[in-house]
Specification:
Helix content is 51%, strand content 12%. By secondary structure, it is α/β, with parallel strands linked by helices. Strands 3-2-1-4-5-6-7-8 form an 8-stranded mixed β-sheet, with helices on both faces. β6 and β7 form a beta hairpin. α1 crosses α2 and α10 crosses α11. The radius of gyration is 21 Å and the shape is globular. The two termini are 21 Å apart.
């Protein structure tokens, strides 16, 4: 555990914020949470309790306890003694800029202020802060209490020290942070997802495949490999003894021709309805809740298996 972080403030406790709160508690930290929504404290405590069995399976840090969660009606009280602040409010640049202004004014000078934003600019979020150098991106992948990835980046006024401290903190609590070295809409992982979604929607729109066909193509094909290694390492292994150099020498041209043929679909009402109907047909009699529980159980087993391997990242 990073000895400089003992207490974390979680600002906004919706799906992402509650998942973060549960994870921080499981890592043996004190957590001060705040959210202005009516009934927020009750929903937060219910969500944390629901996540706890999964976190117990992952393994709790010494001192981890649900009793270390405190809820505050006032933002100022929640961040007053924080060493690290994790913000997960609405995805609106104007809202976040004002929210970080308030957090910056109330949090101790040494605290790092991180945002879970899935695509907004840190430069915009830190614009109204008196101490903008400590504002960073700390974008998790959903659900944060299970998925290791965190994207860390800065804005125009973020200091290198703040980036380093955020990376060190996330690493110390068992996350796998990556550094977003230049601000870009959607950061890294969401842009990679968006590239796949774009072609998936295009193939449905063009009548090449059904929604179920596309899900099968990924879940029973490359998705199995992607769960173990990233696209470049998978490409390397596909080249045999010659590795990625062999693949690029022989398939570089064809791959480029596929890029040039990829679709650029418009998100029309007709296409949205086609996808919604396709998902309903694929889901069938299964409930979304049962599907999510099954996914999470298998995901936990996969994460633990990967962590036990000395050869996979």
């Amino acid at each position: 555990m990073d000895s400089t972080v003992k207490r974390v403030a979680v600002v906004a406790t919706g799906v992402i914020g509650a998942s973060w709160a549960a994870y921080f508690l499981a890592r043996g930290l004190d957590v001060d949470a705040t959210d202005p929504s009516p009934g927020a404290e009750e929903r937060l405590r219910e969500a944390v309790a629901a996540h706890w069995p999964t976190l117990e399976r992952q393994g709790l840090a010494p001192g981890a306890s649900l009793s270390r969660l405190a809820f505050h009606a006032r933002l100022e009280d929640a961040v007053a003694t924080a060493d690290f602040v994790q913000e997960s409010g609405p995805e609106r640049a104007d809202f976040k800029a004002d929210l970080f202004r308030q957090i910056d004014a109330a949090a101790p000078a040494h605290a790092i202020l991180a945002s879970s934003s899935s695509g907004l600019s840190v430069t915009a979020m830190q614009a109204l802060c008196a101490r903008p150098g400590r504002v960073v991106l700390g974008h998790p992948f959903n659900p944060p209490h299970m998925i290791p990835l965190v994207e860390v980046g800065g804005g125009e006024k973020t200091t290198p020290e703040a980036i380093a401290r955020a990376m060190a903190f996330y690493t110390a609590i068992g996350k796998r942070p990556i550094h977003v070295r230049r601000e870009i809409k959607g950061h890294i992982a969401n842009r990679l997802q968006a590239a796949l979604w774009r072609e998936a929607f295009h193939l449905v729109n063009e009548g090449v495949a059904t929604v179920a066909d596309i899900d099968t193509a990924i879940a029973q094909g490359p998705g199995l490999r992607w769960a173990l290694m990233g696209p470049f390492m998978n490409l390397h292994l596909s080249g045999g003894a010659g590795g990625v150099a062999h693949v690029l020498a022989h398939l570089g041209g064809p791959i480029e021709s596929w890029w040039q043929d990829l679709g650029t679909p418009a998100m029309t009402e007709a296409l949205k309805q086609q996808v919604v109907q396709g998902v309903a047909e694929e889901l069938g009699e299964r409930s979304t809740e049962d599907l999510a529980r099954t996914r999470d159980a298998l995901l936990l087993d996969l994460i633990r298996a990967k962590q036990s391997s000395a050869h996979l990242d």
